[in-house]
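Table 4 source record.
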Amino acid sequence: YKRQVSTQSTWGAPYQVMVDRAALKGKGAEADSAQLEQRCLAMNAEHIGWECTEKMMQLTKAGSAIYMHCLPADITAVNCQSGEVSAEVFEKHRMGTYKEAGWKPFVIAAMILLSRFPDPAGLLEGLMTRPGQ
């Protein structure tokens, strides 16, 4: 199964959005940027019922597909009610996905930890020395 990518297809739409966004950047065209965002939200709404599930992953050759995402992802029952990937699939491929994203999620998690806890080093040390972990 091969699919031709063009800027007119659904598959090419994200590329065209990047092209349009780059053209608007620096022009101070807030109204046009807002219009582009609305176009993107409408495009997303067309696929609201689609979710990458373990059942879908099992349809691949020997059920061995690797889930990849540039992040952030909408994960069903984790950060949204109905997402683009099931929590089971995302968790199974989380480390590979994080590495693919260039460690960005780890950096973001560290920044959140640093901003929310007065002694992050002590917190992490406590977690590492907890019995049964």
